[in-house]
Amino acid sequence: MLTAAALVACYASTLRGMFGQWASDEDMSHGFVVPILILWIVWRERQRWRGLPVKPSLWGFAVLAAGAGLQFVAALGAGLFAGSVAFLVSVAGAVLCLGGFAFLRAWAFPLLLALFMLPKLAIVYNQATLPLQLLASRIAAGILTFAGIGVIQEGNILDVAGRRISVLEACNGIRYLLSLGFMAVVFAYLSDAKPWMRVALLVAAVPVAIFGNALRVAAAGWLPWLAEGAPHAISGAFLFVLCLATLMLAQRLFNKVYAHFQA
Amino acid sequence: MRKFTALVLFITFSVCLKAQLPIDLGSAGSFGVLAGATVTSTGATVVNGNLGVSPGSALTGFPPGIVTGGAIYLADPVAAQAESDLTTAYNSAAGQPCPGPPLPGDIGGTTITPGVYCSATSLGITGTVTLNGKGNPNAVFIFQIGSTLTTAAGNSAVVLIGGAVASNVFWQVGSSATLGTNTIFNGTILAQASITVTTGAALNGRALARTGAVTLADNALTVPAPPGVPPSVTCSYPSGQVGVAYSSSLVATGGTPPYTFSISAGSLSPGLTLNTATGAITGAPTAAGTFSDTSKVVDSLGASSTSTCGITVAPVTAPILSLTCASNSGQVGQLYVSSLVAAGGTPPYTYSISAGSLPTGLTLNTSTGAISGKPAAAGSFSYTGKVVDSASASATSSCGPLIVAPVPVSGVPAPPSLILVLIALAVTSIYLNREWLRRRLRRN
Description:
The structure holds 2 protein chains of 2 kinds. By secondary structure, chain A is mainly alpha-helical. Chain A has 12 helices and 3 strands, in the order αααααααααβββααα. Helices cover 74% and strands 5% of the residues of chain A. Chain A has a 3-stranded antiparallel beta sheet with strand order 1-2-3, with helices on one face. In chain A, strand 1 and strand 2 form a beta hairpin. The longest helix of chain A has 34 residues, at 229-262. The radius of gyration of chain A is 22 Å and the shape is globular. Chain B has 3 domains: 17-222, no CATH class; 232-314, Sandwich (Immunoglobulin-like); 322-407, Immunoglobulins (Immunoglobulin-like, Sandwich), CATH 2.60.40. In chain B, strands 1, 3, 4, 6, 7, 9, 12, 15, 17, 19 and 21 form an 11-stranded parallel beta sheet that branches. A 7-stranded parallel beta sheet of chain B has the order 5-2-20-18-16-13-10, with no helix packed on it.
């Protein structure tokens, strides 16, 4: 408990920054759920890690030092993302110092899950935005054409039956991608004992999220009343659940393929 | 011998009785103003007779100048024929034998008897020149002037006495004629080039210019009646309106000008005044109604005539109804509030769309003209707005195109990731516990 309090005290400004981004950035607001879920998973796994032998490792101090160094760099101006990574590294170092490698292995999944609460890395976000915009525009145009609705795509502009729709940054699909990736890992953890399933569903979540976002753009372009207010919120949530259902089907498919090869 | 004596007596009497005949103007005689190039007027000039231009066609200053008792002919066959007849008359006047000595340079202050008079160069009139007909109403006066005719500004006048009439006075001018300010002039001017009648001059005769321009400035020109016709006055007042500038004229014919006009009974509409010298009625009526009067003209010999006249003055009307269009910019799904705006006419108004249509989702309030709502589709919409006032007057206005911009998808991102994850967790929980839930439902 003392170690946890010390970590919170040392990384107070970083944690405050993370909370601030969860509160202000709608792409990252799921960050509030991540620590709660991590604590629940740790509690859920208590029978397993309580039986582990406590063997503190001196490597923990090295990891703690690496975390402190990273935090120093972050304080010099590297930014919130570096500070947040330093916090997770320090937590891992503290686990090593107090419990040893066995505890670190037992809590590896919750610690990896914590990656979903890290702030967006601006350089990656900026690089990915335009390609994702264009991809969403292209797929949305394809969906509308497939549905028999006349559409002309010019870059990120869709002309749907005379109405010109601009697919801008906020429609790039990153929100779906982060949320669905997180849910893919959580769902795999809860529903399947096989560790590789978490990776498989995380990978599967990428195309599903991109397609789901494009479907949302196409729907808003075709039906203007879906583009605002309650219909917009409901349709957005409904499509997300549809994406999740797709992952559930994907899990069944993966299991069948796995069973086939096992047989 | 007796036969020879009779022949000598016949020839002698024939010569003695041979009177000078007036110049035959042909069709040009009906023109008060005729020019070869242009006619220009400023102010409230009144021409009683025809006005023509040929071969030119330029006419300026009519209105406010008016032509009464005739018509305007511009570069048409009537004007061309009149110009042709003018040339014949000009040559006829110039060809008359001139028996007497040349006129002095200025004939102001002299009295002249009937006959043909010559001036090899210019002729001036300063003051009054009197033409005495010696009791003969058919007495003819012909003046042959080599270059210019000029009357001095002020009180110059050509006065007719002894039965002389303006229709028998001819001024053949070798170049141009200029009547100075406020000149009172009698006779027909046949000018080779141009004629200028300056401000306030009155011409009881004709201004006929063969090749050049006739320039007028707030004058009264009256084609003189043939000898022996008594004066008469006519009035044909157009309707007026309170507060609106009005212009008309009493027209005198016959008799011996100059004339003096007056209102002998009744009255003009308040706000209007009569010019007693020219007969012009001008001003702006200040009261509505029908105003009757008896107009009177007195010629220079004291003969008079009256005519019953009337002016109808309409009241002030409401300002002209007009309609201004609403805003031409909207966006799909965004509240649009604008309005058709009527002005003038007699409120209250009723608004409508008479052609075209508003974008779907927008409605017009027919009482207030307000257009509001949320456009449902993007595009360009043109329509015709219409307003009808309580007096059933209407006005329309072509409006648009009203551009409705599309909804940018950027304004409608997905719900916050927190909401998405919470919903997904709930769905996942139900999915993973579906067997337990199913059992619970069966048990219940």
